[in-house]
Amino acid sequence: MDILFQQLFNALTIGSVYSLVALGLTLVYGILHIPNFAHGALYMVGGYITLLFMESMGLHYWLAILISIIVVGLLGVVMERLVFHPLRNAPPIHDKIAAIGVLLFLEALVQLVWGAEYRRMLSPYDIVVDFLGLTVTAQRLLIIGTAILAMILLHLFLKKTITGSAIIAMSQNREGAFLVGINANKVAVITFFISGALAAFASSIASPINLVFPGMGHLVILKAFVIIIIGGMGSIPGAIIGGYILGFSESLSATFISNDYKDLIAFLLLVAILTIKPKGLFVKGARS
Amino acid sequence: GNTSTEPANQSEGNTEETTSNTEEKPAGEVVNIGYSGPLSGPAAYYGENTLSGLSMAVDEINNNGGFEVDGKNYSLNLVSLDDKYLPNETGANAKRLVQEDKTPIIFVPHSGGIFATQVFNLQEKFIIGAYSSEPKITEQGNPLTLRIPPKYSSYIEPFSKYQMERFGKKIAMLPTASQYGKDWAALLEPGWKDLGGEVVYKGSIDFSKDTDFFTIVTNALKEKPDVLFVGGPSEPTALVIKQARELGFKGGFLIMDQAKLDEIEAVLGGPDLVEGSVGVLPLIHSKNDGNAKFIEDYAAAQGKNPGSEAGYHYMAMYLFVEAMKAAGSVDDPDAIMAKVEEGLNNLPADKRIYEITEIEENGGLTTELRMGVVEDGKIVDKSVQ
Amino acid sequence: MLVQVKGLTKTFGGLTAVNSVDFEIEKGKVTAIIGPNGAGKSTFFNLISGFHQPSSGSVMFDSTDITSLKAHQIAKLGIARTFQTTHLFEQSTVLDNVLIGHRLRTSSGLFDAIFRTSRLKREEKESLEKAHEVLEFVGLTNLADKHVSEISQEEMKRTAFALALATDPTIVFLDEPAAGVNPEETDGLAELIKKMVSKGITVCLIEHKMQMIMNLADKIMVLNYGQKIAEGTPEEIKKNPAVIEAYLGGEAVAQAY
Amino acid sequence: MLKLTDVSVSYGGYQALEHINLSVKQGEFVVLLGANGAGKSTIFRTISGLSKPSSGSIEFNDQSISGLSADRLVSLGIVQCAEGRKLFPQMTVYENLILGGFVHRRDKGKRKKSLHEVFELFPILNDKKDDPAGSLSGGQQQMLAIGRALMASPKVILLDEPSIGLAPLIVEQVFSVIQQINKNGTTVLLAEQNANAALKIADRGYVIETGKIVLEGSSKDLFENDEVRKAYIGA
Amino acid sequence: MMSFLNKRNTVILLVVVAILVPLLTDNPYLLHIFSTAFIWTIGVYGLNLIGGFTGQLSLAHAGFFAIGAYSVGILTVKVGLNFWLALLLGIIITTIIGLLIGIIALRTKEHFFAIYTLCVGYIIYLIIYKWEALTEGVRGLIGIPPPAPIGPITFQTPKSQYYLLLFFLVLTIFIFTRIINSLIGRTYMAIRNSEELAQTIGIETMKQKLVSFVLSTFFAGLAGGLYASFVRFIGPDISYINVTFDMLMYLLVGGIGTLSGPLVGTLLVVWISQYLQFLQDYRMLIFGPILVLLIIFYPRGIVGGVQTWLIKQRAKKSQKDLSRNLQSVVVKEEK
Ligand SMILES: Nc1ncnc2c1ncn2[C@@H]1O[C@H](COP(=O)(O)OP(=O)(O)OP(=O)(O)O)[C@@H](O)[C@H]1O
Ligand SMILES: Nc1ncnc2c1ncn2[C@@H]1O[C@H](COP(=O)(O)OP(=O)(O)OP(=O)(O)O)[C@@H](O)[C@H]1O
Ligand SMILES: [Mg+2]
Ligand SMILES: [Mg+2]
C-alpha cells in the first residue's frame, strides 16, 4: 500500500510538469492553430537560462526563474513574429515544418553555448521531508504546489481579466474577436509569451529533480502532444487533466506492468484513445 | 578556418583540421589521423571527451617536433568528422577520410560505427581505433581493429565481493539503458549470483528519456536491496544515487566504470551520499608516473579532470605512433597493426596512462584493474593485483 | 418517383436543422427548394447526398434505400451535387477538375497505373472525352487549360456543373447555382439548367432568385426552420400566405409603409 | 461622416466590388439592398478593415481610415455586427457583452452604463446572462450580436443582415430596436435583402448588384421604383 | 509537346550521367555518398506520395524505414534467408504494418494525423529499442550480408552496390511517375485538394488514402531494406524521429508535391551536409534557419521555385511578345 501512495505522489509530481508544458502547447494551438513542435526547445532553453543565472550570476533560484520566464517568453514572441506570423496564411503543413526548423536551431544553439553535457541544477529546497508518511523532497512538494498555483493563476487570468477573455475569444471566433476591437497580433504575441513562460517555469521547477541537457525537451514535448490530443487540442482543462492522466498512467504502469515499457504504454494509450475517438476525449462540439 | 592556437580550444573539435602550430614545425610529411564520432546531438559530450584525448596527444607530438619513421620526420594532423552516432554516417565519414585524407587509422568511439566500418576497412585498408567494450567488435575477427578500452568483466568479481561483504547479498540493478549498461548488467547478474548473492530487481534507466527517476528508484527500493547497481554518465548517475538516498536507501552502490567517483562526488557536493560506493578508481586518485603529467596537462587545458575516454584515446594515439615507428611505415595498416605489441613496449613511461597488461589475440587491450571505494568519506584505492 | 424522402430529420446538438420532412422528386422535372437563410435547405441536400447522416427518416433513390450510404457510394448511384460556396479543386486547371469527375466510372488501379495497361489508357481516353464533352456542354471549352483561380465566379459555377455532369448523374442537386452571379449570367445558367433537363437529367435546386425559380421549377418546396411549410407549383407558392409571411415578404409590412 | 470613394475589392481573381461610391451622414439611417452575393457584406468587411480594398479610399469624419486594422476602427467608433453573428459560443452572454466593450476596457463606468442600456433594450439577455452564447436561439443570438456591438458605444453601427434566419415576428422586433438605436443618435448602415422592412425605417438606400451600385435614393423613391419592387420586393 | 520531349531528354541524360559516374571515378567515398542519397531518395518519394500528393503529412516514415531495415536484417542474420527473399518479405511486412496503422491513423485528419503518426513513429522506435530478443535492442543488428549475387552478378563492391541502388531508384521514380501521371495520381491530388469534394464525386477517399499510405510505406520499407544491406549494420536510431525530420527536410528543400523534388532535395542536402561537415555540431544552426526561410519564401522548395520562375518568365515573354506585336500594330497604323 505504501508503495502505491509513494507512486501516486511521484505521479502527481511528474503530472504537474506535464500539465504545465501541455498547457503552453494547447494555448498556442487553440488560438493560432499551430502545433508548435519547437515548444520542447523552449522548455529546454528555459532550464538553461535559469541555470545560467543561478550559476554564473549567482542569482537566487526564484530570481533566476523569473528571468528565465521573461527571456523564454520573449523568445516565444520572437518566434511568433519571425516565423509563425509570416506563415499565418500558409497551409498547415508549413507551420509544422518551420517549427521543426526552429527546434533544430535552438538545440544547436544551446549546444554551442553550453555544451552537450548533462548539468545539474541545485535548488535551495534540497531537503527530504516526511509528508503524510511518505518520503518526499521539498522540491517535489514545490513542483506540485507551484504548478497548481500557476494553473490557477492562468485560469484566473483567462477568466477574470479582459485580456484573458480576449485570448479565449480569439480561440472561439477569430473574426468575432476582430469585430470587438481585439488586436490579433497582440493576442498572438501574448499567447506565445505565456506559452514560453509556462515552458520555462515548468523546466525550471523540474530541473532540480532531473538534469539539464540539450535533449531534455524531446520526450517532454512528445508527451505533451499526447496529452493535448487526449485532452482535446486547444482545451485548457483537457491539457491539465491529460497531464495528470499521463503522469499517473506512467507511474502506475512502471510499478505494476513494466518500467521498460512505460513510455510505450503512454503512447499506446494515445493510440487507443484516438482509435476510438479520432478527435480526442474532451473535444467539444464544432469550433468555428 | 580555425583559431585553435590556445590549447583550450583544441578539444572542441569544431573544425575539420584540428592541427595547430603548423607554421612552427620543421618541414616534414603529415600523417592524417581520422576520427568519426558523435559531435552533435545527444551523445556529443561523449564524443567531445573522446576527441579531446586524441587532439591533446596530436598537439603534443607536433609541438615536440613530430616523430621519425624510417628516417623521415612526420607530424600528425587530426581530421575529425561528426557522425551523429549514426552508423551510416560513420561509414560515409570513414570512406571520406580514407579517400580524401588517406588516413591509416580512424578512431571510432561507438560500436554501431565500428560495425559499419568493419564492413569495408580491410578492403579500403585502414585500422579502426575502436573505443567500445562491446565484445562482438573483436569477435568478428577483423585483423585491422584495435579495441582500446579494457574488458570490464574483471571488475565484476572484486566489486561484487566488496559490496557483498560490506552491505549484504541483495542487489537491485538500475544501470543506464545504454548498451554498455546492459552488457554490464548481463555480466554482473551471474557474477553476483555465483558469489551467493541474489538479484532482487532488474531495471534500467534511460537518462535521455525518463523525466523523473523517482518512480523506478522507488520500485527498486521496494525490494529492500542491500546494494544498488548504478551507472552511466556521472551526472545522472549521481542523481540516481541522490534520489535513492532521499528515498531512504542506506546500502551501498556498485557503480559501473563509465561513471567516475570523483565526478559523482563533485555533483553531489561531497562524499556523504556516495559513502559505501565501489567503482573504478578515478585517474586523479591513482596518480602515478605514467599519468601524472597527462592529468595535469589535461586539467590545465580543459579545466576539468580527464576521464577514461580522454585517457585511453590519448594513450592510444601514442601507442599508434610507436607502432608506426616500429613498423617503419606510416601508411601500411597491416604493418602498423603487426607492431602494436612492440609499440606498447616502447611507449614512454609518462604516456602509460593505464597499465596495459596484454594485447589479446583478437586485438583487444587489457588493462590492470583499478578499484576505488568510498570509506569514511574518502575515496580509497583498493586495487587488487 | 426518383427520390422519396420520408420523415427526414437532422439535429445538430440542440438545433433541429431539418425537421421530419417528407418530399418527392419526380424524374425529368425541375424541383426547387426555397426558404429563409438557415432554414435547412443545404442540410437537406447534405442528407440526401450522404454528407451528413440523418438523425431519423429515410431516403429512397430509384427504389434503393440510400439513407445510410456514404457520399461516394451515393455518387456512384448517379446522384451529383454542387456546393453553395462554389467548391472546386483549387490548385488545378478547369480540365483537370472535370477530368477527375469521371473517376468513379473508371476502375483502373495501381497495377494499371504502373504497367500502363490498355484498360488505363482506355479509361484515361474516356475520361478525357467525357471532360471535353461536359465542358462543351456547359460552354467552357475555351477555358479548359485555365487555372480555376483565374476564372470568374460564373465560370466557376459552370465548372462546378461540368464536374457534377462528368460523374454521369441521373439527378443533380444544385445549391444556389446562381448566387453571386449577375442577372444576365443568371439567365445563362438557367438556360444551362434547362438544357440539362432536356438531356434527361433530373434537377433539384436551391435558390433565392425568385424570378429564376419561378421560370424554371416544375415544383417548389418551401422550408422554414427545418420544416416544410409549403409545396406546390410556382403559382401556388407565390400565393401561399405562409410563404409570403416567412420568405417572400409580409404583405402586411409592405402595406404599412 | 463615412465616405467611400471609388472603392474596389477583389478576392483572388474575383472582383467583388467595383468603384463603390457611398456616403453616410451623421445620424443618418442608410440601407444597402442587394441579392445574395451582391457584395453587401464585402462593403462592410472593407469598412471594418477585415478586407483590404485594391483601390479607392475610405474616410471617416474627413480622415482617411483605409488600411487601419480592424481593432483600430472599433476604437474609432465604427462597429460592425457581422453576418453570421460571430459570437464566442462557449462564453457566457455576459462575457460576450463585456468583450463587446473591449475598446473601453479601462473605463469601468462606461462599461457598466452600456451594459445597463443593452439589458434595457434586450431584457432577455439579462435573464440569460450566465448561459453560453451558443445555447441561445437564433433570434436571441442576433440580439446578443447587436448588443455586443452596442457595448462598444459606436458612432456608426454597421448591421449586416440582422434579420437573417429570424422569424418574421422577431424581425419586426429587431427592426424596431434598430430604429430605436438610430433615434438615440447612432448612425446606422444596414444591409438587407428584406427590402420591404428595411425601406420602411431607413432614410436613404443604395441598391447593389454584382459589386456595383446601380441605384441610390431616398427610401420612398426606392420603394416606389419598379425595378426595386420587382427585384427585391417581389410583389 | 516540346517540353515533354525536353523533360524526357533530361531524364535520359540524368540516367546516363548516373550510370557513367562510377566509370569516371574510383572514389569510393563519392559512390558511398551517392548510394546513401539514392536510398534516402527512395524513402523520401514515399513521404512525398502520402504527404505531398495525397496531402496527409506522415511523421512515422523513419519508423517504416526501420521496419523494412530490421525485417531484412533479422531475416538474413537470424533466420538466414537469402537477401532477396528477405527484402521481399521485409517490404511485405512493412506494408502490412503500414496497412494496419493506416486504417486507424487515417481516421484522423490534418494536425491529428501528423501528431498521431509522430507518436506511431515513436512507438516503433520504442519497440525496436526495447524488444531485445528480436532486434538486439540498443546494440543493433550486425553482420547483415550484402545483397546476394544474382547469377553471375555480385554486389560486393561499392560500384556494384551503386548500380543496384541506382536501379532501384530509377525503378522507384518510374513507378512514382507512372502513378502520379495516371488517374490514380489525379485521384490523390483531388483528395489533397479537397477531400470533401472528392467524396461527392464518388471517390472513396478513405480507401484511396489508405492505398497511398500503404504505397508510401512500401517505398519506405524498400529503402530501409536496401539500407540494411548497404550499411550492413542497423541500430534503433534509424527509426528515431530525427530521421523523419531529415527526410522531411530533403523533401521540402527539393519541393513537396513535385515529381523531382525528392531527388533534387535529397542529393542536394546530402551533399551540402557533407560539405558543411567542418561545422559539425553547428550545422543545424545554419540548417534550421534555412528551413524556416525556405518555408516562408519558397514553400514548394527548389523545384517548385524553379517552376514558378519558369511560369513567370514565360508569362513575361508572352507579355513582351504581346506588347511587341501591339507596337508593330501601332507602328503600322502610324504609317
Ligand atoms: N455542421 C453543422 N453543425 C451544426 N449546425 C449546422 C451544421 N450545418 C448546418 N447547421 C445549422 O443548421 C441550420 C440550417 O442550415 P442550412 O445550411 O441547411 O441552411 P440553408 O437553408 O441552406 O440556409 P442558406 O440559405 O443561408 O444557405 C442552420 O442553423 C445552421 O447553422
Ligand atoms: N473570402 C472570399 N473569397 C472569395 N470570394 C468571396 C469571399 N467572400 C465573398 N466572396 C464573393 O464575393 C461576392 C460578394 O459577396 P458578399 O458576401 O459581399 O455578398 P452579400 O451581398 O453580402 O451576399 P449575402 O446576401 O449572401 O450575404 C460573392 O460572389 C461571394 O461569393
Ligand atoms: Mg444553404
Ligand atoms: Mg452578406
TrEMBL record, chain A:
Its main location: membrane. InterPro entries: ABC_transp_permease, BCAA_transport_permease. It comes from the Bacteria. It is a multi-pass membrane protein. It holds the Pfam family BPD_transp_2. Keywords: Amino-acid transport, Cell membrane, Membrane, Transmembrane, Transmembrane helix, Transport. The chain crosses the membrane at residues 12-31, 61-84, 96-115, 127-154, 187-213, 220-244, 264-282. It is found in: Cell membrane. Belongs to the binding-protein-dependent transport system permease family. LivHM subfamily. PANTHER family: ABC TRANSPORTER PERMEASE PROTEIN, BRANCHED-CHAIN AMINO ACID TRANSPORT SYSTEM PERMEASE PROTEIN LIVH. This is Branched-chain amino acid ABC transporter permease. It comes from Metabacillus endolithicus. The lineage of its organism: Bacteria, Bacillati, Bacillota, Bacilli, Bacillales.
From TrEMBL, chain C:
PROSITE patterns: ABC_TRANSPORTER_2 (PS50893). Keywords: ATP-binding, Nucleotide-binding, Transport. Pfam families: ABC_tran, BCA_ABC_TP_C. Gene3D superfamilies: P-loop containing nucleotide triphosphate hydrolases. GO terms for molecular function: ATP binding. InterPro entries: AAA+_ATPase (IPR003593), ABC_AA/LPS_Transport (IPR051120), ABC_transporter-like_ATP-bd (IPR003439), BCA_ABC_TP_C (IPR032823), P-loop_NTPase (IPR027417). CDD domains: ABC_Mj1267_LivG_branched (cd03219). Residues 3-250 form the ABC transporter domain. This is ABC transporter ATP-binding protein.
UniProtKB/TrEMBL annotation, chain D:
Keywords: Amino-acid transport, ATP-binding, Nucleotide-binding, Transport. Transmembrane segments: none annotated. Pfam families: ABC_tran. SMART domains: AAA. CDD domains: ABC_TM1139_LivF_branched (cd03224). PROSITE patterns: ABC_TRANSPORTER_1, ABC_TRANSPORTER_2. One of its GO terms (molecular function) is ATP binding. InterPro entries: AAA+_ATPase, ABC_transporter-like_ATP-bd, ABC_transporter-like_CS, BCAA_Transport_ATP-bd_LivF, P-loop_NTPase. Residues 2-235 form the ABC transporter domain. PANTHER family: HIGH-AFFINITY BRANCHED-CHAIN AMINO ACID TRANSPORT ATP-BINDING PROTEIN LIVF. Belongs to the ABC transporter superfamily. This is ABC transporter ATP-binding protein.
Automatic annotation (TrEMBL), chain E:
The chain crosses the membrane at residues 9-25, 31-50, 57-77, 83-106, 113-131, 162-184, 210-235, 247-272, 284-310. The keyword Membrane applies. Keywords: Cell membrane, Membrane, Transmembrane, Transmembrane helix. It is found in: Cell membrane. InterPro entries: ABC_transp_permease, LivM-like. It comes from the Bacteria. It is a multi-pass membrane protein. This is Branched-chain amino acid ABC transporter permease. It comes from Metabacillus endolithicus.
